[in-house]
Amino acid sequence: MAEQHQFGSIFLAGKTGTSQGALKLHSDGLIWKKTGGGKSVELTSKDIKEITHSKSSGTAFLLSVREKTGSQFKFSGFRDQDLPTIRSFIEKFFKKEVAERPVVVNGQNWGEAILNKSLLTFVPAGNQSCDASTPTTFEVALSDISQVSAPGKNKVLIEFHMDDTGSAAEKDTLVDISFFMPNTNSVYEAIKDEGVEKTSAQVMVDQLKERADLGGSVDEAIATFAEVTCLVPRLKLDVILGYSILKLQATSNEFKIKYSSLVKMFVLPKPNLPQTVVVLSLDPPIRQGKTFYNHVLLQFPEDEELDVSLDIDEEVLKTKYDGKLVARYEGPSADVFCKVLKGLSGAKISRPGQYVSSTAKKAVRCSVKADDGYLFPLERSFFYISKPTTYLLYDEIAEVEFQRQGGSLSLSSAKTFDIRVVMKNDGEHQFRNIQRAEYQNLFNFIQAKGLRINNLTEQQEMQGQGLGDSDSEDEERPAGRSKPEIDPTTGEVYVESEDEDFVAEEDSDGGEPTDSSSDDSDASDGSAPGSGSEDGDKKRKKTEKKDKKEKKEKKDKKE
User: Fold this and answer.
1) Is pTM, for the whole model, over 0.90?
2) Measured between alpha carbons, how far is 440 from 443 in angstroms, rounded to an integer?
3) Can you point out the beta strands (E) in 381-454?
4) Angle at 334 between CA 330 and CA 339, to 5 degrees
């Protein structure tokens, strides 16, 4: 088995706060996954340019990983005793040194703003460049910049993307930052050529615009999808796709979502309805007042065809979106929307996989509390729509339990069953009122995925006794033969057979049989297996005995 190390309670730092998860180091790179699903970071050792560590508190430090493309990820929550293990592992498998990067903590607000490939780094005065050993005051990712301007001769104003996503713990958001830039600055030297005169501030603005690759305006629409039904939150709105932000614009509400907050898209066709639901999974979630939505559900008619031409310059389409976008899309509305959004955001699209219900659909109808919706068993997760929208990764599930299926309740009266899903973080989800016809397919699918079934022995016994069959068997069952019943204590099946002891006792008894005993014996004969001369002799003997008893009774009355 390949050597690896895993660290829990590690936070991924970003502009919108921190997200808790687990970091795993393996011989080919590292993987960070958010607790409970959502955003994940996967880096290979070949793509990593440098790794540094910095002190974050008394006994903790953070790890900064920079890719060759310029992107940087910061992970915090490591303890001091973790550093030797991390350093030796990275040096052995990644062939890279983990250097310490000092952090300026004296509170000074003057220095130099150095532009790297994808970062704007503020360092103490006197530094003309920035490397792994250079002390830093703060860093700004160029991808977070929306606009850059020089409102004065010596002022540089940097504005950041604003959207409606965030965590429940977040109270403040960085909106903009400004620098005072004297013309004596040695990093951004002022230009005073004939016919051209630019201050140091204007030189910095030009370089920022070139490096940040702002494209077009944030509010400039590339494609618009009008009057889309939004199930969660429930609205009728227009979806506007821009260069870096998706806008959901309703009559009285407007939501802005950065593409970096879009983790994944799910395309889920509704069973028995000509509608397709496109789920936008967000991290951080969209917020409206005190309500947070991790998933936005957009509904498209399956019979709606669209022909969309993107409002984008051909040069930008070739240089920035080469191979990701084309100038025109046509087809079903849900497919066109997903293709355009995937090209702009880079988000992955997930669709239903191998699971098929008893009605050849990709989902089963069920209820969560008072809500009636659909449960989609996907390849890596369960997804329930609509309220509350529930996303359960198989890796986060501790066990699954089938309820109201057998046991003390006869299957002849159990038309539905429930599924109870217990998570590794002690959370619990209940999906109720699933039709019994779906039991066999769901059981086989869950078992094939390797999920632990709490009452597996009981379910396997039911499988062996043929108790997981659907109601359709009732129609195929021969007349006069009932379904087997289960002993609630032993789980054994009652089998009707001829009671030979009762017949022998009847021969020695000269009394008159009651109506109930006569009915029971008839029923026993009718349900006994086999036929022929032996059964005919027994019935004839019973009839003769009955006639003799009736004659004897009449004779006694006359006397």
Assistant:
1) no
2) 5
3) 381-385, 390-393, 397-403, 416-423, 428-435
4) 65
Q: Is 234 helix (H, G, I), strand (E, B) or coil?
A: coil
Q: What local confidence, expressed as pLDDT, does residue 483 receive?
A: 42
pLDDT per residue over 405-444, tens digit each?
544 444 445 789 999 999 988 789 999 999 999 999 999 9
pLDDT digits (tens, 9 = 90+) for 454-494: 877 666 666 655 545 544 444 444 444 444 444 433 334 44
The distance in angstroms from the start CA to the end CA of the chain is 99
Please name which of 245, 248, 247, 223 lies closest in space to residue 233, comparing C-alpha atoms.
Answer: 248
Residue 281: both structure tokens together: 């999974």
Give 310-348 as a DSSP string. Answer: ----HHHHHHTSTTT--SEEEEEHHHHHHHHHHHHH--E
pLDDT confidence tier of residue 510, bands split at 50, 70 and 90: very low
Which of helix, strand or coil describes residue 103?
strand
Here the tokens at position 121 are: 């780094």
Using DSSP's 3-state secondary structure scheme, residue 538 falls into helix
Beta bridge partners of 149: 157
Cα separation, 75 vs 66, whole angstroms: 11
Bridge partner residues of 278 (DSSP): 267, 298
Three state DSSP letters for 479-502? CCCCCCCECCCCCCECCCCCCHHH
Q: How many helices (H) and strands (E) are present in the chain, helices listed first?
A: 10, 33
46 in Cβ contact with 26 (< 8 Å): no
Q: How far apart are CA 424 and CA 453, in angstroms?
A: 14
Instruction: Compare 106 and 541 and report the one with higher pLDDT.
Output: 106
* Strand stretches in 56-163, DSSP E: 60-67, 72-79, 98-100, 112-115, 119-123, 138-141, 145-152, 155-160
Q: Which amino acid is at 128?
A: Q
Distance CA 456, CA 396 (A): 19
Element (H, E) at 506: helix 500-508
Handedness of CA 496, 498, 499, 505 (dihedral sign): positive
Q: In what order do the strands lie in the sheet with 98-100?
A: 40-44, 29-34, 17-26, 4-14, 72-79, 60-67, 48-55, 98-100
Contact 364, 470 (CB under 8 A): no
Decide the pairing of beta strands 48-55 and 98-100.
parallel
DSSP assignment letter at 451: P
